[in-house]
């Protein structure tokens, strides 16, 4: 196993020699194997090691036992060990956007590792992901529809600091290695819980694929990740070169950038999307919450017949079309650029929580189970829709000229303006009524009426719950 890891380290240039490495160790088999491997290779690569352990505080005595094990083994090897404790549940309660504990935990871990590396002058953070982790990640991203970037899976090296020396090693090899080296470890009981998508893929989907379709599915998915990584790198490099040729700097400092629409539309469609994504990364960091549906909306804005238009994307990103030019603006809290003081529009994913600051509300979307007493209609602040009838992307916004709506119970559609007049909604209140719209029309006038087109029926299979908080 060590020879295989040496090859991985050399192939991806993870270590040159003489580095200070932070080893992320949870106490589980993968990270304990990582610590043992780094210890064995430390003299060969002249490494200085520091162990980092984050106690999430989710499993009580079990979490404490892991912390104690990591501390003990680090001490036995003479390796400094830095411990940090967090309360993920408390952090989640403070959030307006209620992300999963998995997402918050991942963010806290990387925050801890990167900060520790800076504090102690480490140049690498080693993580214990292996071949099965890679296969699971590729499948997760395929299920979510993340495209080529998601098919890359877990990167061997990320941001020039995070390295994964075990990525070409299987879980079986890790367990055999730990047994041979007599290294103790603890199993995380939450890894057996099917409430997490990764666990369902690990315990159910992959075994089915291995038994019925391809016994070597893990190898196939790892190979797919390698192919996707090469092709994505090529696409990313080409997009960056195009932006450089267009004189758009690698870091847009003034929060504004311009594109000529004709230049963009001359590119292959795949490059159009990647150029836009790369530009947004240059302006607002690679962590902005723009997804493929947002990029498609920008492309549609460019292709449309109207000479002007405005899109409000996540993370206070404003995109304006003015004749043949596209303008990207990063709005700060005091900015009124592109808004009349009344208009607002926010893309909505499922599941998601979106804050509508103009109205002081949060729109929450989730998938729901059928309960005929609830889902066959809507309340003032809750609506249930047929997911398969929706035309993505979804947005929550106020009215626009030309909006149409098919009121529940009606065969045809009518102008939203006519509906407001019929319902005697005062003109002064109309701009403050949130509308849920998809790619076809208005599907819910919040607090008033659902669309016939997307309402839940007895034959509906997938149900979306929309809630205003």
Radius of gyration, taken over Cα atoms and rounded to an integer in Å? 26 Å
Report the CATH topology name of the largest domain: Rossmann fold
Shape: globular
Mean pLDDT over the full residue set: 89
Instruction: Please indicate the count of domains.
Output: 3
Strand content: 15-25%
Low-pLDDT runs of 5+ residues are: 333-341
Distance between the termini: 53 Å
What is the number of E strands?
Answer: 21
* CATH class category name of the largest domain: Alpha Beta
By secondary-structure content and strand pairing, the structural class works out as alpha+beta
| Fourth CATH level, the homologous superfamily of the largest domain | HUPs
Kindly state the percentage of residues in helix.
Answer: 40-55%
Number of helices: 16
The biggest beta sheet reads:
6 strands, mixed
CATH architecture of the largest domain, by name, is: 3-Layer(aba) Sandwich
Strands of the biggest beta sheet: in what spatial order? 3-2-1-4-6-5
Mind explaining what this structure looks like?
It is a single chain. With 469 residues, this protein is of the alpha+beta class. It has 3 domains: 171 residues, Rossmann fold; 83 residues, Uridine Diphospho-n-acetylenolpyruvylglucosamine Reductase, domain 3, CATH 3.30.465.60; 124 residues, Phenylalanyl-trna Synthetase, Chain B, domain 3 (Phenylalanyl-tRNA Synthetase, Chain B, domain 3, 3-Layer(bba) Sandwich), CATH 3.50.40. It is 41% helix and 20% strand. It contains 16 helices and 21 strands. Strand 9 and strand 10 form a beta hairpin. Helix 6 crosses helix 10 and helix 10 packs across helix 12. It is globular and about 80 Å long. It starts with a helix and ends with a strand.
